[in-house]
Amino acid sequence: MGVKIVVREDESIERAVSRFKRDVIRSHAGDKWPWCRSFYASPSMLRNRNKSRRQRRYSNGQ
């Protein structure tokens, strides 16, 4: 099953892929596509990643 990722002209392929992954996680496509469950991080890993991102934002603010 192919998945089409739209890459904008002003962004790199890596950013497009990461944006696509974010959209998939946001729409919980793992329920519809079995491979998303294994391909993307588990909920606990996502939670930890959000935590670290929050800390990074605070450190940038200082």
UniProtKB/TrEMBL annotation:
Coiled coil: none annotated. The keyword ATP-binding does not apply. It comes from the Bacteria. The keyword Ribonucleoprotein applies. GO terms for biological process: translation. GO terms for molecular function: structural constituent of ribosome. GO terms for cellular component: ribonucleoprotein complex; ribosome. InterPro entries: Ribosomal_bS21. Keywords: Ribonucleoprotein, Ribosomal protein. Belongs to the bacterial ribosomal protein bS21 family. This is Small ribosomal subunit protein bS21. It comes from Humisphaera borealis. The gene is rpsU.
